[in-house]
Amino acid sequence: AEKECRLVLQGQPQDLSFRPGKSTLIPYTKYPLDLGDEYFVERVIVGPGPQPSLAVRSVKMLFESLGHPSVEVIKSNISYRPV
Mean per-residue pLDDT for 67-71? Predict the structure, then answer.
């Protein structure tokens, strides 16, 4: 069972950034992940994608850079099917 957390920000962000998507630009805003040890994630399951090992390594590196090397990062068992 999935246990997702999503952050919803209301209004127009002041620090809007953009990244390339498959067919258009994707607007986003940066938000700090570190909410303190009490609320920090214990495990991340990386969804299916074209390069799962690279995705897992990247997420591990993110948590290490935030000072949380003990966060478990694993690859999803669901197979990747490109559209």
Answer: 88
